[in-house]
Amino acid sequence: MAELQEVQITEEKPLLPGQTPEAAKIHSVETPYGSVTFTVYGTPKPKRPAILTYHDVGLNYKSCFQPLFQFGDMQEIIQNFVRVHVDAPGMEEGAPVFPLGYQYPSLDQLADMIPCVLQYLNFSTVIGVGVGAGAYILSRYALNHPDTVEGLVLINIDPNAKGWMDWAAHKLTGLTSSIPEMILGHLFSQEELSGNSELIQKYRNIITHAPNLDNIELYWNSYNNRRDLNFERGGDITLKCPVMLVVGDQAPHEDAVMADSGGQPQLTQPGKLTEAFKYFLQGMGYMASSCMTRLSRSRTASLTSAASIDGNRSRSRTLSQSSESGTLSSGPPGHTMEVSC
């Protein structure tokens, strides 16, 4: 089995002090499953999709994606695309706590809210970027609306429903751990949590003292009650668009690419992820003139020969392609690019 060629890449080019941040426009729309809030940056570009993000449990769009989209090298990308950051209901800053007994939407219903967002903005297609629960939601949306999704970046996705053993472990953990600790265990690996770095301390504080913690628990419960996405390799249930699968080095199931927990590469490795994203966009036919020197010299892109994600987590045969010119042909529709950060 071919594997990614790993080298150390030094992070650089953070957003410079004094650099003017983009203006944000916050919107809310009503959907059949309640109100959803989203933030728009930039203006639509002719013949280009919007970049639409969806965050993981315990986070909102800022705490999940801000380090990535404020990274210096990312500015070249965001200048070329309008982007839409969706907050799951009740996760946006200042969100009121839902009343007792409120029925929070399932992950499938959260995916069904996205068409309302695109209709409101009059956007026809998107490139989705999702982490954890957000990656699942965007995958479900892409399955239901394949003609509106040009590509997906899925970070730490688990496409499978929880089995009986998972449920038993979850229940036992709930007897001895608080909701914040369980969510932290979903976001980061045990090694990261034991190290208690400044990043871990920051996010432990964010989640533990979140004023909307009751709302976060509802999103957490919906994630744990997710259905199996039932991807079928070569079957009818498959993602039709190009997909970039991303997993952090700290993820406990790195070999499977699709990890349920551990590692947040958009937080810890924004430089690596930005370069891989540029490479992915080039493969889709965008940003052909973008400089890819660091990535093309230091990493090998891995394109799987299959057009879908295997539900049993076995990897397909990979085709490793190094790029001297820094460009990557998009290959057949539905190709998958695997990246380990």
From TrEMBL:
<dbReference type="GO" id="GO:0030426">
    <property type="term" value="C:growth cone"/>
</dbReference>
<dbReference type="InterPro" id="IPR004142">
    <property type="entry name" value="NDRG"/>
</dbReference>
<protein>
    <recommendedName>
        <fullName>Protein NDRG2</fullName>
    </recommendedName>
</protein>
<keyword id="KW-0524">Neurogenesis</keyword>
<dbReference type="Pfam" id="PF03096">
    <property type="entry name" value="Ndr"/>
</dbReference>
<comment type="similarity">
    <text>Belongs to the NDRG family.</text>
</comment>
<dbReference type="GO" id="GO:0048471">
    <property type="term" value="C:perinuclear region of cytoplasm"/>
</dbReference>
<keyword id="KW-0879">Wnt signaling pathway</keyword>
<dbReference type="GO" id="GO:0007399">
    <property type="term" value="P:nervous system development"/>
</dbReference>
<dbReference type="GO" id="GO:0030154">
    <property type="term" value="P:cell differentiation"/>
</dbReference>
<feature type="region of interest" description="Disordered">
    <location>
        <begin position="304"/>
        <end position="341"/>
    </location>
</feature>
<keyword id="KW-0966">Cell projection</keyword>
<keyword id="KW-0217">Developmental protein</keyword>
<feature type="region of interest" description="Disordered">
    <location>
        <begin position="1"/>
        <end position="20"/>
    </location>
</feature>
<feature type="compositionally biased region" description="Low complexity">
    <location>
        <begin position="317"/>
        <end position="331"/>
    </location>
</feature>
<keyword id="KW-0221">Differentiation</keyword>
<comment type="function">
    <text>Contributes to the regulation of the Wnt signaling pathway. Down-regulates CTNNB1-mediated transcriptional activation of target genes, such as CCND1, and may thereby act as tumor suppressor. May be involved in dendritic cell and neuron differentiation.</text>
</comment>
<keyword id="KW-0963">Cytoplasm</keyword>
<dbReference type="GO" id="GO:0016055">
    <property type="term" value="P:Wnt signaling pathway"/>
</dbReference>
<comment type="subunit">
    <text>Interacts with CTNNB1.</text>
</comment>
<dbReference type="InterPro" id="IPR029058">
    <property type="entry name" value="AB_hydrolase_fold"/>
</dbReference>
